[in-house]
Amino acid sequence: MRRCLVGLLCWPLWANADTLLVGVEALNMAPVYRLDARGEYQGFANDLLRDFAQRSGHELQIRPWPVARLYQEFFAGRIDLKFPDSPLWEEQQRTQLQIAYSAPVLAYLDGIMRLSPEAHQHTPGKPFRVGVIRGFSSVDFLYAAERYTLVRASSLEQLYRLLAKGRVDGIFFNALSINYQLRHDAKLLKQPLHLDQHLPYLQGHYRLSSIQRPDVIAEFDQYLIEHAAQVAQLKRKWGMPSTLP
Fold first, then answer.
1. Which residues form the Solute-binding protein family 3/N-terminal domain (predicted)?
2. Measured between alpha carbons, how far is 48 from 235 in angstroms, rounded to an integer?
């Protein structure tokens, strides 16, 4: 798109567009997002954010951080946008902040994934060992009772190894992502994992958020409406439901 004035040269509408720093998780959550071997952000989230930026005239600098560090940068106001985000995560740290959230982008279901669907029949009196990614402190309130022990690791691959060796009883992770990775990563277990619905789990929607740029969140909401067909196409490309529950 170009804008012209009589007697002057034409210039791109976004010639003076700002560069937005987008904080993302340095985590393998394929097909939603992951880092490739070169550390490049890939997946549905990358395609969505890039398409939004191209259509709205923004430049994006997407920077991955470990989950805990990403929260520090975001709550300190040092990044423009965060994805994914939810008002349900790290609720206590959000109470004094004015955070703008987009409309829902993608539904998520995070819970305890186990090797057997009958595995909820756990040995009474023995702590249930939950494998969880470092920085996922939102799960602390879910499994705060004495019957749970949290075992933290830096990556999903480490959690897989702990589960395979019987050092944890289940893995807290996204149900869609964990089984996608089982099907596509030869280094991981080939046995499908099952959500244990007898144990607490989290359900909600991924959103784009910002402390510094609520105006961009408003633009993104408009993008989701005006380009709903393109968003649905990206979801199909990455094997995700095209509609929200």
1. 22-105
2. 9
**The pTM is what?**
0.82
Q: What CATH superfamily classification does 109-202 receive? A: Periplasmic binding protein-like II (3.40.190.10)
SS3 label, residue 234: helix
Pairwise CA distance, residues 237 & 244, whole Å: 16
Closest C-alpha among 108, 132, 114 to residue 202: 108
Q: Which residues contact 119 (CB under 8 A, 6 or more apart)?
A: 169, 170, 194, 196
Does residue 99 surpass a pLDDT of 80?
A: yes
pLDDT for res 15: 41
| CA gap 102, 94 in Å, rounded | 16
130 touches 143 (CB < 8 A):
yes
What is 2-107+205-237's CATH topology? D-Maltodextrin-Binding Protein; domain 2 (3.40.190)
Neighbour tally for 243: CB within 10 Å: 8
Residues 35-51, mean pLDDT to the nearest whole number: 95
pLDDT category of residue 243 using cuts at 50, 70 and 90: low
